[in-house]
Amino acid sequence: MKPLTKYIPNLHPKFFWDFRFDSIDWDGGYKMVIARIVERGGQDQIDEIVRFYGREKVITSIRDEIFFLPNYAIENALKFFPELKKEEMYCYLNRKDKPYHWI
């Protein structure tokens, strides 16, 4: 029986400097991968995660599943995916620097 070939996205290990690159769970850790690339990657890396995970999964993850992105990464996500709205993104709604009513 042939061993299963492990497909991984074509991303540079520098984006995952704090992980052992050859042991990343690309399927189970998709939220971490997508968040890391949105935060630190460019258009080529965004295109690669869209190719690997599919556009719908990437958009759904950014909008509904990723708990934190810094403000500049939220702006990057809006630039890369114009169909996203900041007010619908969980990471935007979950920010600690948003104003709260004290009354």
From TrEMBL:
It holds the Pfam family DUF6922. It comes from the Bacteria. Residues 11-60 form the DUF6922 domain. This is DUF6922 domain-containing protein. It comes from Flavobacterium algoritolerans. The lineage of its organism: Bacteria, Pseudomonadati, Bacteroidota, Flavobacteriia, Flavobacteriales.
